[in-house]
Write a structure and sequence with these properties.
The structure is a single chain. The protein is an all-alpha fold. It has one domain. It has 7 helices and no strands.
Length: 125
């Protein structure tokens, strides 16, 4: 019984750690501002900071969303070189109905951004 409780606690801590790392990767990989991350995560800047700094636990739903966003970032990095990605997402494009990919990311649509870029570059390649 004790071993199960310890294993569960360790899994929960690992999940929290991975979610915090995802926040950091999204901020650094996309060069997002605190305002951008608020839109992406759908929470206040204070909440995002508390999550990143381990002050509060990241809810299960938010951890799942962060996993999906982090996976989308990984997909974007197969299309763009890491140093070009922040610049690339700031360009307005017909692909995003005249908006920039960053605008969509700020609306929480990072998976759609990755889907569209992958499809567009697959078509070109």
């Amino acid at each position: 019984m004790f071993s199960l409780a310890v294993a569960e606690k360790l899994r929960a801590e690992e999940s929290q750690s991975q979610a915090r790392q995802a926040i950091r990767r999204l901020i650094s990989g996309l060069e997002l501002s605190s305002e951008d991350i608020v839109g992406l995560l759908g929470v206040s800047a204070d909440t995002a900071k508390q999550w990143e700094s381990s002050e509060t636990l990241i809810p299960t739903e938010a951890r799942a969303m962060l996993t999906r966003a982090d996976n989308a970032l990984s997909r974007l990095l197969t299309v763009f070189r890491p140093e070009r990605l922040p610049q690339g997402i700031r360009q307005k494009a017909d692909l995003f109905q005249g908006d920039s990919a960053r605008d969509w990311i700020r609306q929480g649509r990072i998976q759609e951004v990755a889907d569209l870029y992958e499809a567009a570059f697959a078509y070109l390649g």
